[in-house]
Amino acid sequence: MAKFKSGFVSIIGRTNVGKSTLVNRLVGEKVAITANKCQTTRTAIKAIINRKYSQIIFIDTPGIHKPKTKLGNTMLETVWTTIPTCDIILFLIDATSQKIGTGDRIILEKIKELKQKTILIINKIDLVQKEKLLKIIELYRNEYEFEAIIPISATENENIEAILEEIEKALPEGPAYYDIDEYTDQTERQIVEEIIREKALKLLDEEVPHGIYVETQKMRLRKTAKKEDIYDIEAIIYCLRESHKGIIIGKNGEKLKKIGMYARQDIERMWQKKVNLKIWVKVKENWQDNNSIVSKFKLK
Predict the structure, then answer these.
(1) Is 70 exceeded by the pLDDT of residue 200?
(2) pLDDT in tens, 230-270
(3) Chain centroid offset of residue 98 CA
(4) CA distance linking residue 23 with residue 143, whole number of Å
């Protein structure tokens, strides 16, 4: 009989390389927010996969970037603190990059230094020709002895099962760390905050989204007059400037209504319950350098 295996797998890569999309594909549930913008993930998010003979705990980390605030420094600290504690690293790169860029080189040198088991994942293969893909594989193969090199397309769900199989081979024997019905370590409040932030990221212009954070003020489950379950949720979107507040709210409140509508739909799909969601927007200047706020994003 096969022995049970378990362990922690850190997903690391540059910003906007597709880490969060991959996590959601692997788990089959929405545990990490996705957006076509840099620095979407701000903290380490655990996603749990239970298989017949293994439990894999993925840790989705913030993308490697050049920090400009205390928040940025905290995000990088999370990455470098997470890597040494994991059993396996999934190093995610972009197939459209034909050379090893600065961010990828920093990660690669850290992996070499730690000599950790690493699986190289080449994402977005649907965007490149086979000849270019083979060149990338050869380029990285000459740099490090990876456990495996797996070309994938996270958006097209291509080769995802191969990742799980290779991880399972490399995992040590061990117990299940989480209950079988758990798929993330995030609280319901954190999930709500991240979903609202995701919708803001997707609907707002480039400058504004990275200057926001969301705080759930109230969450209560009650019965409607028809005896149906409904969540009453109240949240605040904090932004850096008064001008940003106006952009988030939009003309006649239309932008904020859209953010709230899309967030509510996601939450209702996830929890299979009705949601009454109210969102306010407030200005909190320089919050990215505020220790009490930034500490919320530190690795626990």
Answers:
(1) yes
(2) 999 999 999 888 888 998 999 999 999 999 999 999 999 98
(3) 25
(4) 26
DSSP 42-96: -S-EEEEEEETTEEEEEEE-PPB----SHHHHHHHHHHHHHGGG-SEEEEEEETT
Say what the pTM is: 0.65
Closest-CA residue to 22 (of 148, 129, 125): 125
User: CA 207, CA 210: separation in Å to the nearest integer?
Assistant: 7
> Chain-centre distance of CA 161, in angstroms?
19
CATH 3.30.300.20 residue ranges for the chain: 188-297
Q: How far apart are CA 103 and CA 122, in angstroms?
A: 15
Query: Which residues are 7's β-sheet partners?
Result: 56
How far is residue 272's CA from residue 265's CA, in Å, rounded to a whole number? 10
Please state which CATH class domain 188-297 belongs to: alpha beta
User: Residue 72 has what pLDDT?
Assistant: 57
Query: Please, where in the chain does CATH 3.40.50.300 lie?
Result: 5-170
Strand partners, 116: none
Average pLDDT over residues 137-158: 92
Q: Domain 5-170 class?
A: alpha beta
